[in-house]
Write a structure and sequence with these properties.
423 residues; alpha/beta; 13-stranded parallel β-sheet; 4-stranded parallel β-sheet
Length: 423
């Protein structure tokens, strides 16, 4: 007698699914397109089997999201290997783009194909897919690939007229790309470049509101120029040996938030270049700095050190790691903060001390530390409410000495300690 209720439930469940599909099928195409735009391309195509009316709906969906992770399964990997996985990806992507209805523009085209062995045939496949996606004049274009040598970014022509967001990962960008930014993208607002090889030196745009240049290589050897007068957000990550001629930022009055990472810790990005960047960011409200040296932030080192009149939050990540006394580093920090009269929160993340253990001689010298009772210069900041200290480990009383020094230098702020989880 037990199987009957189960069979009933199975039949009723099947009817429920069929009813749900039928109800979805009653929706207008425009609304169905909105629903399908949230799904990966593989699932969009699979949905076509649920209803006869949906059979060709994938050919006109406004968003295409192709991700090679959708083809990675342990079964395929063990049974067929990488070549078979790529064959399935290539077959699916080529047919998806080939049989799409050509008279409809895309809201979004995204393709992600990373972590594949370098192969000329795969590079040709990726180049062909990118070119085909660009033909559909997308408003959002995201290309996340990994190939060596880097695949050149193709000419966009008239297809760039609708482009509002552009994200590119690991491609070669030539002089044409610089001209595209300046005059070929009339409505572009968001540009995100990561690990690209840039053979142009000027990022000029009158429409950009967000600009991210993350670990890109500067092939020109010349100073990089950034001029985006309407940009409210800037993220810049400077890799070693790529920007030795510096970065020039112009027309930065609209910037609200900026993040600058000096990944080389000043080794190939000099103190002068670091100070020039700071001088260009004097209007921001939120500032994040990574890898800046003590002397770059010491007001006395520069006769024209800027006043950060609008700065409210400041995050320093792995700054002040150059070799000198802690008191000198705190003096530089205090002088910098003194030029930010509206600062409300200061965060120090892994600053002042290296995370690695010291040598045996240095450890022996720090078995006993002396906490100075008074400082020569105490800075008063009535608006500074919090100083957050984020640390990984406390070696030889370093944290105690740092907190004591901050309390003496910045007596108006509460100090928050937060230990970071190190995996």
């Amino acid at each position: 007698m037990a199987p009957k209720p189960r069979a009933k439930r199975m039949r009723s469940g099947g009817h429920a699914v069929a009813f749900a599909v039928e109800r979805l099928g009653d929706l207008p195409d425009a609304l169905l397109h909105v629903i399908l735009s949230f799904l990966p391309a593989v699932q969009v195509v699979r949905m076509s089997v649920l209803s006869r009316r949906w059979r060709d709906l994938w050919r006109s969906t406004p968003c295409i999201n192709i991700d090679d992770h959708d083809f990675w399964t342990f079964t395929w990997l063990n049974r067929h290997g990488l070549a078979e996985i790529w064959r399935k990806l290539e077959d699916f992507t080529t047919n998806l783009l080939l049989f799409r209805i050509n008279d409809t523009s895309l809201d979004k085209f995204r393709i992600s194909a990373c972590h594949w062995p370098d192969d000329e045939l795969r590079r040709r496949d990726i180049d062909r897919w990118v070119r085909r996606g660009i033909r559909y004049r997308p408003q959002v274009l995201e290309i996340i690939i990994s190939a060596s040598p880097a695949v050149p970014f193709p000419r966009m022509g008239a297809s760039s007229c609708r482009l509002k967001r552009l994200q590119i990962h690991y491609m070669y960008l030539d002089n044409q790309f610089g001209r595209l930014l300046f005059s070929g993208c009339p409505v572009l607002e968001d540009l995100d470049l990561s690990m690209c090889s840039n053979n142009f030196r000027e990022f000029k745009s009158r429409t950009l509101r967000k600009l991210a240049i993350d670990r890109c290589v500067n092939l020109t050897g010349d100073p990089v120029v950034i001029a985006a007068p309407r940009a409210a957000y800037l993220r810049l990550s400077i890799p070693p040996d790529c920007y030795s001629s510096g970065v020039s930022m112009r027309e930065t009055a609209s910037l609200v938030k900026a993040s600058v990472d000096v990944l080389c810790r000043g080794e190939t990005f000099s103190l002068i270049h670091q100070r020039r960047i700071l001088g260009s960011l004097c209007n921001v409200k939120n500032l994040e700095l990574w890898g800046f040296q003590r002397r770059a932030m010491l007001v006395e080192e520069s006769a024209e050190f800027p006043i950060f009149a609008n700065l409210q939050t400041l995050l320093l990540d792995r700054c002040f790691l150059d070799k000198c006394n802690l008191s000198d580093k705190l003096e530089a920090l205090g002088s910098f903060v003194q030029n930010a009269p509206c600062l409300e929160k200061l965060t120090l993340k892994c600053c002042m001390f290296e995370a690695e253990m010291e040598t045996e001689e240095e450890q022996a010298a720090r078995e006993t530390i002396t906490l100075q009772r008074q400082d020569q210069n105490n800075y008063r900041f009535p608006k500074l409410k919090f100083v957050e200290v984020m640390y990984e480990e406390d070696h030889d009383h370093q944290l105690v000495e740092l907190v004591w020094g901050i309390g003496r230098k910045l007596p108006d702020a509460s100090i928050i300690l937060r230990k970071l989880n190190v995996d």
